[in-house]
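Page 47, continued from p. 46.
Same chain as before, 161 aa.
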Amino acid sequence: MGVLLFKWLITAWASFHPFYVSVTEIAHDKSRNELQVSCRIFADDLENAIKKQYKAPLDIIHPANRAVADSLISVYLSKHLFVTADGKTIRLQYLGYKIEEEAAWCFLAAEKVPVFKRAHVRNDILYAEHPNQINMIHVIQNEVRKSTKLDNPKADADFDF
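Result:
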């Protein structure tokens, strides 16, 4: 009974006080020397941010032109998500996105990324749109997972391995 009451309270609270959270997972695949990145962002928030910044019509869930939607998302992410490994900038290549429930899952990758001792992540996704935005970051390497929470305006995090 307590769990149900808790879930109801959270649902009721969220309906009165919207919350803004994204989750970015950065995983190093040692066998492929590849960095694999996924970002879970509420689709409507991402869509509104892109519309506002680029003054472009966009429907992420039912795009009239998927290539245009991908291009706009790619440009947006390239300006709001940066990763360095041992001081070297990692060039993330946008791969695409999919919609799952209310979220847009955006996928990026970088090749030829060796095992690193330190990763630095700069993530200010949706900060311009939501003063209360929270960006959760997970970095995984050699089956070790490090995580942090970035509250707007804090956008930088370091992960030591």
